[in-house]
Every structure is written in structure tokens, then in C-alpha cells.
């Protein structure tokens, strides 16, 4: 008659279900309003003398709450001005002074960083 095992004799496997939490990713560290740091008075020529470096988006604090979505979506929205974002390092924080459109375009393209000129202000 063969092997007559019941379901109670079958090997038991413990199945663990893992509930995945929503992978909450932020684009920026924080959204600010206005410049909390003192005026640095840098001109476009002075900014251009700072070598660009990669900066992670999730380490940046924006200084603008509002964004013009129409200008973000225009093909040439990042054509004019400096090729690199301008970031001010003040009291251990990195503030995105100029380049919000570039940073958001980088995020939309699934990039976690942007090339920026970083100015240390004391």
C-alpha cells in the first residue's frame, strides 16, 4: 500500500511574513524659508572660482518653500546661469541657495546628488 502519512506527519516549515514598511525617502533634509545665514555678498564671478563638488540631496536644506512648476518642466529651465548649484555651509548645515530646479531635476532622474559649488560662511 505504500507510505500512508497524514498531513500531521509532514515536515513543518515556519513561514515568516515580513511586512515591508514604506520606504520613505526624502529629497531634501528640510524645506526652509529664507536665508538663515548672514549675507555673504558673493558675485557670480566669485562663485565661479569655487570648484564644484558632489552634494547629496538629502543633506540639503532649501531656502525656498515655493517652486514654479512650469519653469521646472521647461526644457531650458537649467540653461541660463551657473551650471552648478550654489550651496552655503553655515553652522554645520548645507543650504541650497541657488539651483533648486537643478536639484529637483536630479531627484526626478533618480539621482541622489547634485554637483554644487559650496561656500563656507562663518
Structural class by SSE content: alpha/beta
Q: What's the overall geometry?
A: globular
Would you identify the regions where 5 or more consecutive residues have pLDDT less than 50?
11-23
CATH superfamily: Conserved hypothetical protein from pyrococcus furiosus pfu- 392566-001, ParB domain
* SSE sequence, one letter per element: EHEEHEEHE
**What is the CATH class?**
Alpha Beta
Number of domain modules: 1
Ends apart, CA distance between termini: 88 Å
- Percent strand: 15-25%
Please compute the radius of gyration using only Cα atoms.
25 Å
- Provide the helix percentage: 10-25%
Give the name of the CATH architecture: Alpha-Beta Complex
Separate helix tally: 3
Biggest sheet layout = 6 strands, mixed
Strand order of the largest sheet: 1-3-5-4-6-2
| Arithmetic mean pLDDT | 80
Overall strand count: 6
CATH fold call: Conserved hypothetical protein from pyrococcus furiosus pfu- 392566-001, ParB domain
Write the layout of secondary structure elements.
Blueprint: E1 30-31, H1 44-48, E2 52-56, E3 60-62, H2 69-73, E4 85-90, E5 93-98, H3 100-108, E6 113-120
Parallel strand pairs: 1-3, 3-5, 4-6
Antiparallel strand pairs: 2-6, 4-5
Amino acid at each position: 500500500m505504500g507510505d500512508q502519512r497524514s498531513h500531521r506527519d509532514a515536515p513543518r516549515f515556519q513561514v515568516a511574513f515580513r511586512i515591508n514598511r514604506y520606504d520613505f525617502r526624502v529629497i531634501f533634509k528640510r524645506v526652509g524659508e529664507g536665508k538663515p545665514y548672514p549675507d555673504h555678498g558673493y558675485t557670480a564671478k566669485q562663485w565661479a572660482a569655487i570648484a564644484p563638488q558632489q552634494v547629496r540631496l538629502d543633506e540639503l536644506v532649501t531656502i525656498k518653500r515655493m517652486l514654479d512648476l512650469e519653469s521646472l518642466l521647461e526644457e531650458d529651465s537649467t540653461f541660463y546661469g551657473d551650471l552648478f548649484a550654489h550651496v552655503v555651509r553655515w553652522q554645520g548645515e548645507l543650504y541650497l541657495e541657488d539651483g533648486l530646479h537643478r536639484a529637483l531635476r536630479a531627484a526626478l532622474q533618480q539621482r541622489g546628488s547634485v554637483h554644487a559649488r559650496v561656500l563656507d560662511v562663518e
